[in-house]
TrEMBL record:
Residues 30-89 form the ATP synthase F1 complex delta/epsilon subunit N-terminal domain. GO terms for cellular component: mitochondrial inner membrane; proton-transporting ATP synthase complex. It holds the Pfam family ATP-synt_DE_N. This is ATP synthase F1 complex delta/epsilon subunit N-terminal domain-containing protein. CDD domains: F1-ATPase_delta. It comes from the Eukaryota. It comes from Strombidinopsis acuminata. The keyword Mitochondrion applies. Keywords: Hydrogen ion transport, Ion transport, Membrane, Mitochondrion, Mitochondrion inner membrane, Transit peptide, Transport.
Length: 154
């Protein structure tokens, strides 16, 4: 914890960033951004979509499949998340910069999604035999995830 705070302090002092939300988004495969100063991030929580800005109340939230929108000034970037967690912490130094960490299973820019391929996979899932409880569950969960991919790709 002390090491993370020291790194954050060095980052904030080195760049002169104050009173901004420092966003880290990563999956096991890659880190999209590390302590990037942004205005806000909108995430698909399991209880509904919500937006986090600097000085938000402390929160840990499970995320469901959907679109994460990162706002920095007039620039918006959208990412698809399969599922994961959001951790929001208040500043541990004098910079006034709160931290938001998105830890995802899969996290990709929405521009990388292929709607036609997702539609093909959905058709295959729905056409597959559903003889056992496992087959029915796999088809239902897969269809729910692929439907979110299709929605995000639009």
């Amino acid at each position: 914890m002390a090491l993370r705070a020291a790194r954050l302090l060095r980052f904030a002092e080195a760049t002169g960033v104050t009173n901004r939300l420092l966003l880290t988004m990563s999956s096991p495969a890659e880190s999209i951004c590390i302590s990037k100063p942004v205005d806000s991030v909108t995430v698909p929580g399991t209880e509904g979509t919500f937006t986090v800005t600097n000085n938000h109340s402390l929160i840990v939230s499970q995320l469901k499949p959907g679109v994460i929108t990162v706002r920095d000034g007039s620039d918006n970037k959208d990412y698809f998340i399969s599922d994961g967690f959001l951790f929001f912490n208040h500043p541990t130094d004098g910079s006034g910069c709160c931290t938001a960490e998105v830890s995802a299973v899969e996290l990709v820019p929405t521009s990388a999604l292929d709607k036609d391929r997702a539609s093909t996979i959905l058709s295959e899932l729905l056409a597959a035999p559903k003889d056992t409880e496992w087959d029915r569950t796999k088809a239902a969960l897969g269809a729910a995830l692929v439907n979110q991919v299709i929605k995000a790709a639009e």
